[in-house]
Every structure is written in C-alpha cells, then in structure tokens.
Amino acid sequence: MDYNVLVVDDDNEIRESIEIYLKNEGIRVIGAGDGLQALKILEKEEIHLIIMDIMMPVMDGIKATFKIRESKNIPIIMLSAKSEDTDKILGLNIGADDYITKPYNPLELVARVKSQLRRYTNFGYYKNENEISIRGLTLDKNTKTVKVNGEEISLTSTEYKLLELLMENKGRVFSIAEIYKRVWNEPLYNGENTVSVHIRRIREKIEINPKEPEYLKVVWGIGYKIEK
What's the sign of the alpha-carbon dihedral 185, 190, 194, 199? Predict the structure, then answer.
C-alpha cells in the first residue's frame, strides 16, 4: 500500500530533508509548520504516521499529540532538540510511539518510520474507515478510486456512484428504479436501458468474465446487487 507521513516541524529545511529520504522509500510526505496545522491536515488527509517536533509555535508537539490521541492511534515519532529524559518520558506517556533526538541520523529515522508503519499495518491497527473491500474488489471513498486485485481501474463519475451504492450495501438487492433515483437523483422515466448500460460497462471493468460476474449480479425480476 502507499503510505502518507505527516512531518510536523516549524523548520522548513528539516521538513524538506526528511521528505527527501522518505520519498526515496516511496513514502508520500505532507508537511505542517505547527501542531494546529497538523490537526487540520488530519481532518482532510489519510495519514499513516506522524513525525512530530516538540518545540513549535502556535501549538507545540506535546499538545498536538495529546489532542491526536483523543481519537486516533496513528504512530507518532517525537522529534526534538532536547535530550533530557523528562521530555522523552513525557512524550511517551502522552502516546508517542518512539522518540528521536536532534541531530539525528536520517537513515535511522527512515528505519524507525518503516518499522512503525509495518507494526501499524501488519498487526491490524490500521483500518481505512472509508475503504470498502469485497474479496479482490476495493473502493476508496477518500480518493474515489476502485481497484481490482490491486490494479486501479478507470470509472466515470456515474459508474463510480453506482458501484459505491451497491458496495456500501453489499448483499442488498436494488431495483432499477431505486438505482436510478439514488444515482441520477431523479425519478425513473424510461431509464431502464440507462441503468443496464452502466451495469454492463462496470462489469466489463471489474469482472474477469463479464458474462459470469463474480461481483455485480442480477436478481431476475428485481434488480442488481453486489455479492458479499
């Protein structure tokens, strides 16, 4: 999977330096200059790990970490110029997962980031609440993308809305009239063919054999459903 790491530090050069090393590992880096900016980014972006400086203006790393821990279990690595044990203990006590003192070895930081990401994903701590997975079919509501066995497929906005409706209600049968009303936002007037054409196009993109669909199935005389 692709990882997003949030680097929170008021020193732009430090943020850029960390980004260079993490990008070499295929990790996307998002920067923030203080704790308050970090909280706003967390509301909009899917973040898998945070590197958090302690001494920052507006909102420091301790307050930001305390606030983040009220609702999220994202791994947090504290980063600080202070080397006193009291700061390290405070950071760990409020929920940080690791602690690195400046100046640091960039390769050590990368190793610790990768270690925390492995723990977070491999041991089941990470769950994307906006991702719907049905066997090899995955729909991400954040990025509006659909993948089949890990390979992203291209859908029109209408095809995506139709598939999202069925996947959010897997196993439930929707009539053609209900699909049309929910996807096109208007009552069904001679729209049966419109729905069937879109169903056929989606099948051609997500099914190995569209004539023997594994996911998107017809319930004769009633409508369509996504098989659980």
Answer: positive
Helix axes 157-168, 192-206, angle to 10 degrees: 80
Contact status, residue 42 vs residue 68, Cβ threshold 8 Å: yes
Cα–Cα distance for residue pair 171/217, rounded to 1 Å: 10
Nearest-CA neighbor of 227 among 130, 136, 94? 136
Residue 64, burial from CB neighbour count under 10 angstroms (0-12, 13-18, 19+): buried
Q: Among 11, 15, 95, 87, which Cα is nearest to 56's?
A: 11
* Calpha distance 31→15 (Å, rounded): 7
Q: Rounded to an integer, what distance in angstroms lies between the CA atom of residue 192 and that of residue 106?
A: 59
Domains, the chain, ranges and CATH?
Answer: 4-122 (3.40.50.2300), 131-226 (1.10.10.10)
199 CB contacts (<8 Å, ≥6 apart)?
A: 162, 216, 218, 224
**pTM to 2 decimal places:** 0.56
d(CA 206, CA 135): 12
Q: What are the pLDDT digits (tens) for 20-54?
A: 999 988 899 999 989 999 999 998 888 899 999 98
